[in-house]
Specification:
heterodimer; A: about 240 residues; mainly alpha; Four Helix Bundle (Hemerythrin (Met), subunit A); about 80% helix; B: about 220 residues; 9 helices; globular
Chain lengths: ~240, ~220
């Protein structure tokens, strides 16, 4: 995974994102009941998707790290947690912006909002651990454990939070079988937005991952240099001794 | 098994002689309940507020005081000896978990008494129905806290980190526990909180399994 691949993905992101922005602001018809505000939905949902996918990746790479112990998995998990956190924050912000005119409040303790907030808190804890345990040699293993526990906790969080009432609109699939997106252009816009945010998330992940890989390599080189230096000193001492 | 009982007996004896954890837990619970009584100023007999206050006391007293049995091992490097001994890592985990659980149950009995006094409830037979709810909560919390406390001790300023890690993970148990406690205190039929109990049980199983499987990875130094 070189800089060239990251560069190409960056260009692709720019292209798809421009298309998505054009579709959201120009192409797609305005929703009849909610009006112009509904357009934020085309950013809100893809952000949620990227955040959840990234958090799943944190847990998966955590399992692989504990299993195989290769630094690559740890770096991948760290990068995914950071990217997931960015998009989870965006989900909460775009959701709030939408909720104010529609529900009349920035925040309600609806089940999906609550779940997202708890997720945000979980991975804030994960990143706090990574930041505070910076110089602990086993930080990767500690973080992997927290990442796995957090992901395993998600289903229980969803069930427990559902003990409360929910007022979040059911888009995509409802029990009645209607998905709430009447116009085919809306579906097309949503799909393009999904694609745009997926490549954006992947691109950011690649950049962060590459940085972490480089850091790991530098630390490794530094360690080898220190070893060589110690050997040289040793040899010098022996030479002087004989 | 013998390793488990040996470690546990050691921890319980230590606690009998100093009372460090239990006294800290009881006093913290007392403080938190007092603060919440002032802050919320709930009318007497408000079971919902009382149940909530009890769980807040349990969580925050627990994060500070429940894991002393494990954290204490790092003082004077006792953990090295424990890890060098042929004891299974899972046995160490279980012993520490049971010790934390015992301390928390003792503190919760005291906190429940205080809650009844502070929130003007009655000492009635229905308080006993709170028993299984609180025991399940304490078990889940002890399981989670024992795993995460082993992470805490490795990190500089780890005592700041522990609540950040524990509280979000414990949220589902908290929601279910408060709901079940309120139902038990209000004298609702068992059917009213069976769902909450199921969620609590799911949390317990999850935290126990997670701690049992992952403890080895956080405790091993190389």
């Amino acid at each position: 995974m070189g800089t060239k691949a990251a560069y190409r993905l960056g260009v692709a992101t720019l292209g798809v994102m421009t298309a998505a922005i054009f579709m959201v602001f120009v192409y797609v018809p305005t929703e009849a009941q909610e009006g112009i505000v509904q357009r934020i939905f085309y950013f809100h949902v893809p952000c949620a998707w990227v955040a959840f996918a990234a958090f799943a990746l944190v847990a998966i790479s955590g399992v692989f790290y504990l299993w195989f112990g290769q630094q690559v998995w740890d770096d991948l998990g760290y990068a995914a947690a950071e990217v997931g956190m960015v998009f989870c924050t965006l989900v909460l912000i775009t959701g709030s912006v939408w909720a104010k005119p529609i529900w009349g409040a920035w925040w309600t303790w609806d089940s999906r909002l609550t779940t997202t907030l708890v997720l945000w808190l979980l991975y804030a804890g994960y990143l706090a651990l990574r930041a505070m345990a910076d110089e602990v040699p086993q930080v990767g293993r500690l973080a992997a454990v927290v990442g796995i526990v957090a992901a395993a906790d998600v289903p229980v969080i969803i069930v427990s939070v559902r003990l409360w009432r929910t007022i979040h609109p059911a888009v995509i699939v409802t029990r009645q079988g209607s998905h709430g997106l009447e116009d085919p252009r809306m579906i097309a816009t949503l799909l393009v937005s999904m694609a745009a945010f997926t490549v954006l998330g992947t691109w950011l992940l690649m950049l962060r991952f590459a940085t972490l890989r480089t850091t790991a390599r530098i630390i490794n080189v530094g360690r080898q240099l220190a070893l060589m230096e110690a050997e040289m000193v040793d040899m010098g001492a022996q030479a002087r001794g004989s | 098994m013998s390793a488990l009982t040996a470690i546990l007996r050691k921890d319980l004896r230590l606690e009998l002689r100093t009372g460090e954890s239990t006294i800290a837990l009881v006093f913290l619970s007392l403080l938190i309940l007092t603060v919440l009584t002032f802050a919320l100023n709930a009318p007497g007999g408000d079971t919902a507020t009382a149940a909530g206050a009890l769980w807040v006391a349990m969580i925050f007293a627990g994060t500070i005081g429940a894991t002393r049995a494990l954290i204490g091992e790092w003082e004077n490097g006792c953990i090295r000896g424990l890890l060098l001994s042929p004891a299974d890592r899972a046995a160490i985990y279980c012993a520490k978990l049971v010790a934390s659980f015992v301390f928390m149950v003792l503190a919760e009995v005291a906190a429940t008494m205080l809650m009844v006094l502070f929130f003007n409830l009655d000492f009635r037979i229905r308080l006993l129905r709170l028993g299984p709810v609180l025991a399940m909560g304490a078990l889940g919390f002890a399981a989670l806290a024992t795993l995460l406390a082993a992470i805490q001790v490795r990190v500089r300023a780890g005592d700041l980190l522990l609540p950040l890690l524990i509280v979000p993970v414990f949220v589902p148990a908290l929601i279910a526990g408060v709901k079940a406690s309120n139902a038990a205190l209000a004298g609702l039929p068992f059917a009213a909180f069976s769902q909450s109990l199921k969620i609590l049980a799911a949390c317990d199983i999850l935290f126990l399994a997670g701690g049992y499987l992952l403890f080895e990875h956080v405790i091993t130094e190389d």
